Structures are given as structure tokens and as C-alpha cells.
Amino acid sequence: MSESSNTGQTFSPIEVKLEAGKDYYWCACGLSKSQPFCDGSHKNTAFTPKKFSVTENKTAWLCTCKKTDNAPYCDGTHRKL
Ligand code: FES
């Protein structure tokens, strides 16, 4: 599902398995080395991770371009960058 953007950068959503009731922290700054999840790299930036959870176990595609309008989920915006 990797696609090149108009700027030449390549963004790809990451498929993850999510467990019901577990708290997750989606990286909003793009600096995390543990994409798509926060690893604390946002410290000293204006960004904060987005906390989320799901109500049932499921597989989801999480955004890595950080431009989605449906964070933390990919909404296809990376194709327009
Ligand atoms: S990776 Fe698809 S909208 Fe960000």
C-alpha cells in the first residue's frame, strides 16, 4: 500500500492489530521511531500523541503522513501530498 506523494516522499499507512479496551497512543509529530505509535519523541515539540482505543479486536490501517482528517486512521490523504 506504499504510494509516492507529489513531493516525492513516500507515505504508507501501517496495518496494525488492535485489542479491545487497550489504550494506544498514535504519533502525531512524525518523529517516533515506533510508527505509527508514540515513543516520546514529541517532547520539545508542539505535538501531543492521540490516545485512542477500540471496542472490539480488529485490524486497522493507521496514518503515517500525519495529514489524515480521521486520526489515527488513514483516510487516503497521503495520496494527495
Ligand atoms: S498515511 Fe494515509 S492519510 Fe496519512
Chart the SSEs and their pairings:
Layout: E1 3-4, E2 10-11, E3 14-18, E4 24-26, E5 50-52, E6 58-62
Antiparallel strand pairs: 1-2, 3-6, 4-5
Residues 11, 13, 63-65, 67-68, 74-78 line the site of FE2/S2 (inorganic) cluster.
Outline the structure in words.
This protein has 81 residues and is mainly beta. The chain has one domain (1-81). 0% of the residues lie in helices and 25% in strands. It contains no helices and six strands. The chain has strands spanning 3-4, 10-11, 14-18, 24-26, 50-52, 58-62. It has a two-stranded antiparallel sheet with strand order 1-2. A two-stranded antiparallel sheet has the order 3-6. Strands 4-5 form a two-stranded antiparallel sheet. Strand 1 (3-4) and strand 2 form a beta hairpin. It is globular, with a radius of gyration of 13 Å. The chain starts with a strand and ends in a 19-residue tail after the last strand. Bound molecules: FE2/S2 (inorganic) cluster. The site of FE2/S2 (inorganic) cluster has 12 residues, from loops.
Main sheet overview: 2 strands, antiparallel
Give the DSSP E fraction (strand runs of 2 or more residues): 15-25%
The rough form would be described as globular
Cα separation of the termini: 15 Å
- How many strand units? 6
Integer tally of domains: 1
What percent of residues adopt helix (DSSP H or I)?
under 10%
Structural class: mainly beta
Encode the helix/strand succession as letters: EEEEEE
Gyration radius from CA atoms, angstroms: 13 Å
Q: Which regions are unreliable across 5 or more consecutive residues at pLDDT < 50?
A: none
Mean pLDDT: 92
Bound ligands, named by name, code or SMILES: FE2/S2 (inorganic) cluster
What strand line-up does the widest sheet have?
Answer: 1-2
Number of helices: 0
